[in-house]
Each structure stands twice: as C-alpha cells, then as structure tokens.
Amino acid sequence: MIIERYYSSLTAVIGLVLLAILFAYIQPMILSPFGVTMSANQGTTLALAALAQLVVVLTGGVDLSVGAMVGLTNAIAATYMGTHPAIATLVIIGTLFAGTLAGFVNGLIVAYGRIQPIIVTLATLYIYTGIGLVVRPQPGGSVPSGFANALTGSWGYLPYGLIFLLVVVGVAWVPLMRSRLGRAIKAVGDNRNGARVSGISVARTELWAYTAGGFFAACAGIFLTAQTTSGDPTIGTSYTLNSVAAVVFGGAVLGGGRGVALGPICGAYFLSLLISVLFASGVSPFYQNLLQGAILVIVLAAANVWRLRTRHWLNVMSN
Amino acid sequence: MNNVSESKRAVALPSWLLQGVTISYILLVVLFALAAAINPHYASWDNIRNLLQIGAFIGVIAVGQTLVIITGQIDLSVPWNLTFSAILMATLISHGTSTPVAIAAALASGTLVGMFNSIGTAIFRIHSLVWTLGTNALMQGATLVYTHAQPPKVDVPPFIRALGAGNLWGIPVPLMVWIVAAIFALVILHQTRFGRYLYAIGNNESALFLSGVDSRKVYLGAYAISGFCAALAGIMLTGYSSQTYLGMGSDYLLVPVAAVIIGGTNIMGGSGGYLGSISGAMIVVLLQSVLSTVQIQEAGKNIIFGSIIIVLLLLYGREKLSTH
Amino acid sequence: MADSSESGAFNDAPALEASGIAKHFAGTIALDDADFSCRRGEVHVLLGANGAGKSTLVKILCGVQPPDAGTIRLAGEPVKLENPIRAAELGVAAVFQELSLAPHLTVAENIMLAHEPTGPLGQIRGRELRRRVTELFEQIGIDHIKPNTLTGRLTLADQQLVEIAKALSHDPKTLIVDEGTSALGQEEVRRLFDLLGRLRERGTAIIFISHRMAEVREIADRLTVFRNGTNVGTVDAADMDESHLVELMLGERIEQSFPERAPRPTDNDILLDVDHLSAGELLHDISFQLRRGEVLGIAGLEGQGQGDLLLALFGMVRRLSGDVRVAGKPVNLGSPWKAIRAGFALIPEDRKTQGLLQPQSLRENIALASLKNLSRGGLIDRARERRTADEGMKRMEIKAASMETPVAALSGGNQQKVVIAKWLETGGDIFLFYDPTRGVDVGTKRAFYELIGELARAGKAVMLYSTELSELVGVCHRVLVMNDRRIAETLEDTDITENAILAASLGVRERAGADAEPAATRNIGAAS
C-alpha cells in the first residue's frame, strides 16, 4: 500500500469527521443507533454511485449515466420484487445483471465507437431513463420487508448498509483494483499512449471499466430500493452530479489515473451528511438543491484553481 | 491567382457543412412526407402552423446552443435557466412591475447565468458538460428557494401571451420571433468577427489565442447569448401556456442539442451553422408530434432522442484512431 | 537476463530479421520495402533524418503497430508481433522515445505493467512483483531508485532508467533503445552504456537509435542508415566515415543557399530593448537590444529557454519581471493581444496546433489576426478581407486553387507561408520566428530566408530561433546563444560559425573544443 496515494483523500476524511462532530453537537440525538443508521443510510447510495463514477473517472472519462442506471435498476428491482417476492434473490441478481449490461453498452460505444465518453453517457442517460419508464411508468412497486430490513437495519450502532458497502468494496472493488484490469484502468487514465505501447488494450480496458461502473451503479440502485421500498426511474437524476462531486471532493482527478475509493466514499457521506446538518440547523429544505449545486460548482472550481497560477497561457488552454 | 494541381482535391470535396445541412433537410422532407402519408392531417396548414409555433421555442434555444456547440462546448443549463427567468418575470409582474421591465429582468437573468457558465468552462477549464449541468442544478435550487416550490399565480399580460401564442396576419408570433432570431444567428455566424472567432475556437483555440484574440471573451459571448436565448424561450413559453410552472424547462435539456447535431453541426466544434439547426429543430418537433400519438410518450421520447444522438455521433463525431 | 550459455563468440544468424516491411499512413509512405537485420550480441545503430522511418520500424518491431506488408523473423522463425506483450514474450522489448510510464503508478508497478505476476484468482501478487523489480534493479545496477516511489516524483533521467528497466523486465533477446539517452546526463549515459555492454556480452541484440554522433561512435558495432522509409546501407563501425553517413542520410546533398544579407545595421534606432527579463524557472535575467533592420538569431541545445524567450516576448508567459521597451516606450507584456499592440508578431512552433485553422479557408486564416482592422462595428468587410487574402497570397507566393481552399489541403511549406502572410497583415514591427523551416523543403526555405531579409531591409526587426545551425550562420547578424535559460554568449558578424555556436551552446571555449565537441553533439536528425 502506497500511503502517498491516500493523501488526496484527506480533505474528504477530515471533512467528514468534523462534520459528524458538528452534527452530534447540534443534534445529540443523532448518536443513538437509530440516528447513526439513518445518517449512514442516507449516504450509502451515493457512496456506491461514487464508486461507479470513480472507476470511469480513473480511465479519464466521466459517466453521466450513473444516475440513470441507479434509477433504472431501482425501477427493475422494485417492480419485479413487488410482483414476485418469493424470488427476491433472483430479482437482485437480475438487477445487478441489468446494471452491468447498461455499463457494458456504455463501454462498447465509448471504446469501440470512439466517441467522447461524456456525450455518449449523456445520451445513454436518456435511453436508460426511458427504459426505466417503460418498466415502471409511474413511481411505485414494493419490496419484501425482509429485504429492506436486511440492508437498512442495524446491529447496535453498526448499520447493515455500511456492511453492504464494505462487502461491495471487499468483494468487487478491491479485487478489481488488485487485478491486472484495475492496474490497466489506472495506467490508461494516467498515460493513455504509454499504456498502449506497454501492451494494454485501451479499448478493452475502457469497456470493462464502464461495465464495472454499471455494476456499482446497480448496487447503488439495489440499496436505494431497500431504502425507499419503491421504484422510480427518475429518482436517480441527482446521483449523476453528486457522484461527480463526491469523486472530485474525494481527491480523484477528472482526467484520470488518480483516485482511491476511500476519498470518494467519504466524500459521498460528507455531501449527504451536510444536507442533514443544514436541516438540523434550521435551514429551509428548499435550499437543498441550491446547496448541492453550489457544492458541486465550488468543488469543481477549487480542483482547477491551479490554472489561474500557471505560467504558460498554453497550459491554461489545454484541457 | 495561382492555379496548381495540389488543390484539385480540395475543390472536388464539397464542404462538410453543406453535406450535413443537405442531409438534414432531406431527412425533414422525408419524415414529413411519411407522417403525411400515414395521417393526411399532418399536411394541413393548421398542423404545419402548430408545428412551426412549437418549433420556435426549440429554434430560439438552438440559436445559443448552435453558437456554443460551434466552439466545441455545450450548454446544459437551459432547462432551469429558462424556468428561473420565466418565474422571475412572472413574480415581478405579480408584484406589479411593468411588463417591459419584467421582461428585461428575465433576459438579464438568463444572460448572467450564461456568463456564469463561461467562467467554469473558459477560466477553470472544466468540461462544459459537467459545469453547465452544475449550473443547471444551481438554478434548479435557486428556483425552488425563490418560489418555495410554488410558482406565482399571475395573469400573464397580453403582450407576453402574444409572444408565445399570438397570431399576426395569420402567422404565429413565436414563428416571427424565431425568424428574427434565426436572422440574428446567421448574421452573427457568417458576417461578424465574433462569429469567425466562434468557428476558430472550435477548430483550434491555441491558434486563435496566438492570433491575439482573448478566447475567454469569445466563450463569454457565446454563453451569454445562449443564456439570453434560454430566457427568451422561457418568456415565450410563459405566454404559450399562460402560466409558469416548475417543469416548464424539462423538455429542453437534450432536445435542442439533438436539433443542433441533427442539423449537421459537429459536436466537437468548428463546423456547421444555424441553417441546419432550423431543420434540426423541425425534425425534432415532428418526431415529438408523432410520438405524442403513441402510448409510451415520455419513455419513447427519451429512448429515441438518446439513440438518435448516439447514431449521429457514430456517423460524425468519432475521434480519429490514434496512429501513434 | 538473456541466456549466457553461449558467451563469447556468436554465430552470424540474425537475432532479428525484417524484410520487405511496408507501412502507409493516410497517403504518406512511412516504410517502403524496408529490410533490416540485427545479430546476437551486437549494438546496431539506426540512423536517419526525421521522417526516414526509424520510429515506424521500431513500432513495428515491438508490436505497437502492424506492418502493411513484410515478414519478421526471430532467430530464423517467422513471427507475428500482434501487440507489445506478444512481442515481449517472443523476446523483443523497447525503450521508447516518449516515455511510456504512468506518473501516478509506482516504479515497480510501471516496470511490471501488463505482465504482473498474478495468483489463481487473477489478483496481482504485490510482494512477488516488488521482489522481481528489486532483483532486476540489482542485476542492472540501479540502487538509488526505490521501487515503491511514485514514478512522477523521479527526475526525467531516473524515469528514463525506469523505462529501460521496464524493457529489461521482459528479459529480451532483442532490445530496442529509441532515443533512450536524450534525458540522461553524462554520468547516466556512461552507466547505460556499461549496462548495454554487459547485455551485448550475454548475446542480447541491441538496436540503438540516437542523434548524438559521439554516442554512436562509442557504442555501435554496426550502423544502418534509413532514408525515405527504406534501408540505404549498412556499415561496420570500424569502417565508419561520418561524412559518408551524413551523405547517406541526406541523399543527394543539396547545399542550402542563402540570399545575400544586408549589412548589420549599427546606426538604426533601437526597436526592442529587453532589460533583465526573468520568468520564474523559465527564463533568467535576459538582456539584449535589437535594432531596426537587424536579424537576431537565438541558438542553444534543445530546451535551454530559446522557445520560452520568444513566447515571453509574445505575451504567452505570465508574471514576467524586468523591463521591455519597444521604440523607447515601456510595454506591458502579459497576453498576446498586448504583445501584438506593442508590435510583435509570432510565427509559432507548430503550425498544425498553434498556427492554423486546418479545415478553414486560406482567406479566413490570413485574415484571422487582423479582423479588427477588416471589420466595422463587428461586421466583417468581405471585400477588404478578400483583398487582404489576395495580397497575402501574392506576396508569399502561396500556391493554391483559390483563397477558399482549406489550408489542410496545402503542402507544409505553403501552410507555413499562410501563417507568415497572416502576420504581414497585422503591421507588426518585430517578427519572432519559432523554428520556421522545420519540415519545409529546400525551395521554400530559400523563400523564407529572402522574406526575412526583406523584412529587415524594410526596417523591421527579426528574431529567429532555429535548431538548424547553418540557417543561423547564413541569415543572422547576431546570435544569442542560450544555456540553462540565460544568455550564455552573443556572437556577432564573422564570429558566427557553426562551431562557435555549438561551442557556446555547450559552454566550452571555442578553441578548446572546436575539433571534437561540436561535431560530436551535432544533431544530425535536424540537419535535413
């Protein structure tokens, strides 16, 4: 483990800790098992969505369809679990498969169509939302209560949602990053041409990175289903931009090659906790969207302030 | 003039712009003929007038979007910029402000938001897709805070209603506004220095900068016009539906972009023009109109516009395979 | 490392043999029926001017690009090198000119990239990976680089060593080193050569590409010269005759002729006065004066600040310190538009990425920098624009069907003329030429030299940064030689000779090093 890589996560980690302390100070009730679980659960979907975003950002792309994939998988899970509660496990597997497939399609178009990822995923954002609306034209559906409790309950102070996140990280993220594919993902984002001459297939690496992104988005969709116990294909919209914000705040660089899971995960919990803190301190709920937008814009700008300091105008212009 | 053999190739190739525009107009005619063949009602003047009237909203937004896309950027802040401007105007009117002042305030608000877009893209160099979506979220938040999710109930003044739904000598007023906007766009793009700089940025920003042009100001202008157009469309839409509501901009995120790309403007910037965007807007309106007759309207719209963009990108927007 | 079972004498069977290799890129021929072979245990140097096809051959030999035609044999066996990993498995590895390292991976991760040792579940075995790298470092004598460092933290020279280690990690039977010494200092080159020597003894075939003749002379066993995508001759190092090699590289030697230059103006007004100009790490304390009618050359080894000096004068470098006066008036540089107002014009380094709008017409390109004068109230006066474009085309003798031709359809020389025509229209006084004749044919070069003379005679001032020594000697009145981003020496009139420029570039007195050094470091790649 190279400690230096985790430096970039520091802002998000410290920010999260300070915010949690502040929250406990304003609202001491929050230190109950219920309070901890509720706060954690609000951030877990975004944390998983941030992983989906991060794996794509590492290759140097951005996935604007993350929110749509979260919404689509949410719609699928809630719809089919509602009608076939007996085979909930199968539905979960099917949902994971659907999300992974959506990511795979993204990857296929980006890698082999050779189109800018950001505009491809903007278009698939619409397509996946559309498919979600076909599956579930109106919000609704239901989930077996056992399923919801298994993901959103807690064991004392330990929320099951956090365990779910850790399982996803442990079973999918860490092995991915420890594999040759994971190494290739980072290398492609860091030095695309260098990766190519080192014998890495850039197209194949991108394909599987977007596919992995779809899988993590599906995990987020499943958790969201447990949390809301219903399905709504348009519910995911906010996760697209918030996942970008979490990833950038968590120290990853749009442009690729740099970023570890710790930062974006903490960034995601930070962003969701921030909203709770503001409400707890009496800010009107109408400010939620405004604040989320403002945070995104500030985080993005802050990550690029160096451009104001650079000496060569040509460096300013290169993207 | 020197005539030399090496330039033969260049003469033989018709310009890219011509192709894209031509294709889009052929597509428009074919689509229209198909629709009319299935349902003769489509060919009626009433229906055509109706299509042109709805097309005007997209067409006006597409003026700004075309300018921005020619620079190689994009403006995804239109939906909530439009909504906020319209609601700002409606609120002012409900508080007794005179109509011209309210309209001016809406246009100024839209223009300012556009200028804010250029800060992120031109100075911080954040991909405009992400940054303008951020602006969109910001404006959504601003709208909710401003209205507490309750857009003002207001008697829309006759002038604004005329802008959105009126007829003058049998011609829809929105269509007239569109025509004026289109002439403005064509003059800007093809007759002015600013227009030349837009294409230059799209092709090679460094070359423009090294020619002594502050490209950041060019971005500023393009985004300001785009914001102005969004606000103008918001005013027209308020007149069209005689009210303001929170979802009034939701159709205008991807649809104007689709119109511009269908019209043959390259999403990577540097080529294309507004002539194509006109037919692009009409194609989009025609598709929407056909879709509105089938069941899965909302879902179908999403899927079809998303797919059209992918297909067009595969045709025009592919990056060259690196030879290095 | 390679098998050393057969140490000592080697048979003559080629370790690598390529025959009939062809490669085309969108209309241009990079390689045409090229043959090449390299024996075990030899260092085989590849020479050739820019665009001769060396780099393409290297890319084909290590599997980065497939050839359009031809066969490659390794130890007599025909092989297909589909990708770099396959090539490495078959025993061919390369050190690339442009570094292939990912700056945010560690040294060890980079070295083993794409051939990491993996366990049964596909997981990378980190400890094993580091062990192999440590072992490799011991073998090749790298002891100052830690395998766990992030690669981007290393100096350029150390990164180049890592790049070499990366190639050696494949245990190659054939090692290709493409400009592998460009970032290395003398000490490091020494170590690299020791290493190559040891590999050679073990029977590794080494293909070595360099433009530094001193290195070539030292390391080569045999040399092959490429020209226009084909092999024009292979010689033993023992029979090496440098002037003959240069002739082979250049083909028919065309002596560049220079127009007669006007006498150096010593009485004219001082147009540009630069006083203690500095810019952070880019430029240190630059002072000089330039008179009307003068042509001032800027010389030096690659990357000594020559380019940044021109860019700084053109306002492309921010936060300058020092004074710049034009015609006696202090000017504030900080952006190109301010520089242009002060009278500067820059013909930039790369016409493709900095000079031209490729898909747009000649007319639009020529008018671009002077649109302000060609428009009223923001509207472009088309008639005046056409007149301007027409004048520019005539003045520069640009060959094109019409002013509506896209510049992408023009030849390189004509494209460069378009860039210059653009600046003639702005009415600038001080022309900054950033290596303008690179990749331009002999006839067009002559036209440029004439133009530079004409500008000088018309009372303008010219600064010419060039990588071609003959050009500086043939055209300039004075030459500023830069070293370590400051002015090392100013040469005047008859003192300007290729030897003197090189000696000053290297920081040696001319008499001391005139015989050996200049010829040795001469960049033959740029001499065509």
TrEMBL record, chain A:
It is a multi-pass membrane protein. The keyword Electron transport does not apply. One of its GO terms (cellular component) is plasma membrane. The chain crosses the membrane at residues 6-26, 46-66, 86-111, 118-135, 155-176, 207-226, 238-255, 262-284, 290-308. Keywords: Cell membrane, Membrane, Transmembrane, Transmembrane helix. Pfam families: BPD_transp_2. GO terms for molecular function: transmembrane transporter activity. It is found in: Cell inner membrane. Belongs to the binding-protein-dependent transport system permease family. AraH/RbsC subfamily. This is Putative ABC transporter permease. It comes from Salinisphaera hydrothermalis (strain C41B8). The lineage of its organism: Bacteria, Pseudomonadati, Pseudomonadota, Gammaproteobacteria, Salinisphaerales.
TrEMBL record, chain B:
Pfam families: BPD_transp_2. It comes from the Bacteria. CDD domains: TM_PBP1_transp_AraH_like. Signal peptide: none annotated. Keywords: Cell membrane, Membrane, Transmembrane, Transmembrane helix. The keyword Chaperone does not apply. GO terms for molecular function: transmembrane transporter activity. The chain crosses the membrane at residues 16-38, 50-70, 82-108, 129-149, 169-189, 218-240, 252-269, 299-317. The keyword GTP-binding does not apply. It is a multi-pass membrane protein. One of its GO terms (cellular component) is plasma membrane. Its main location: membrane. Belongs to the binding-protein-dependent transport system permease family. AraH/RbsC subfamily. This is Putative ABC transporter permease. It comes from Salinisphaera hydrothermalis (strain C41B8).
From TrEMBL, chain C:
The lineage of its organism: Bacteria, Pseudomonadati, Pseudomonadota, Gammaproteobacteria, Salinisphaerales. It comes from Salinisphaera hydrothermalis (strain C41B8). Pfam families: ABC_tran (PF00005). Residues 16-253, 265-509 form the ABC transporter domain. This is Ribose ABC transporter ATP-binding protein. CDD domains: ABC_Carb_Monos_I (cd03216), ABC_Carb_Monos_II (cd03215). PROSITE patterns: ABC_TRANSPORTER_1, ABC_TRANSPORTER_2. The keyword Translocase applies. InterPro entries: AAA+_ATPase (IPR003593), ABC_carbohydrate_import_ATPase (IPR050107), ABC_transporter-like_ATP-bd (IPR003439), ABC_transporter-like_CS (IPR017871), P-loop_NTPase (IPR027417). SUPFAM superfamilies: P-loop containing nucleoside triphosphate hydrolases. GO terms for molecular function: ATP binding; ATP hydrolysis activity. Keywords: ATP-binding, Cell membrane, Membrane, Nucleotide-binding, Repeat, Sugar transport, Translocase, Transport. The keyword Repeat applies.
